[in-house]
Specification:
This protein is α/β, with parallel strands linked by helices. The chain is built from 9 helices and 8 strands. The longest helix is centred in the C-terminal third of the chain and has 19 residues.
Length: 240
């Protein structure tokens, strides 16, 4: 597990000048399929590193790309969310830099998936037709033009919590759109879970954590165990 300087490739593709990431390598000998991991709105923190390490233990060369490389959460949060909502911006180039890094690595088989959480889940849906072989969108905002976004998308596994008041109806809407588009998929909404329930630990600013507990945001181990099993099976099917 190591921090990674992606600025060289970013300069070639027009990405963030100081782009960096967190790379987790499986044990044993490669090459392995690759996974680009897209972080929550809080950035690459311990919760996201744990997810990255988990994917590596499953046998994927996993790169969490830091979409806040040019100034951290405080400086980059608003512009990055605007990019997600508009479907354009440098964040998409940075995601492509991460995908290209894996694709060009001798340690990667060339089969690459994308997995995102919260804000990153939104980006996972938006980039599902951008060269990835499979996508996992976890409690991510649905694109405004969902049908158009899914045109030509790779297989998608989507995970939501029914108690997540920010995404009411999202699971059913995504399920319907994927069925209509004929895209292989697995979408599930968990009745006892809310936002960020796949995380192993609480995250975000400490001053906001009591509020998160009140709203139900955060880890929900029982639902998470089932969700991870689904994600693992879906990725194993489409990245083999």
């Amino acid at each position: 597990m190591s921090d990674l300087d992606l600025s060289g490739l970013a300069a070639e593709l027009g990405g963030s000048p100081s782009l960096r990431g967190y790379l987790a390598t499986p044990s044993g000998e490669g090459p392995w399929p690759g996974v680009v991991l897209l972080h929550e709105a809080f950035g690459i923190d311990d919760a996201m590193r744990l997810h990255t390490d988990r994917m590596a233990r499953l046998g994927y060369l996993t790169l969490a790309v830091d979409l806040y490389s040019e100034g951290g959460t405080r400086k980059c949060l608003v512009s990055t969310i605007r990019a997600m909502l508009s479907g354009r911006g440098r964040a998409f180039t940075d995601i492509e830099v991460a995908r290209r890094y894996l694709a060009e690595s001798a340690q990667c088989t060339g089969k690459i998936g994308v997995i995102g959480f919260c804000m990153g889940g939104g980006f996972a849906l938006l980039t599902a037709r951008s060269g990835f072989d499979v996508a996992s969108a976890n409690y991510g905002q649905l694109p405004k033009d969902l049908d158009e976004t899914l045109n030509g998308a790779c297989p998608i596994v989507g995970t939501f919590g029914r108690k997540d008041f920010t995404l009411r109806g999202a699971a059913a809407k995504l399920e319907s759109a994927l069925s209509k588009a004929g895209i292989p998929h697995d979408v599930k909404e968990y009745p006892n879970a809310s936002h960020a329930f796949l995380n192993d630990i609480e995250n975000g600013p400490r001053m906001l954590r009591p509020l998160a507990r009140i709203t139900g945001f955060g880890p929900e181990p029982e639902s998470a165990a089932d969700a991870w099993q689904r994600i693992e099976a879906f990725f194993r099917t489409h990245l083999a």
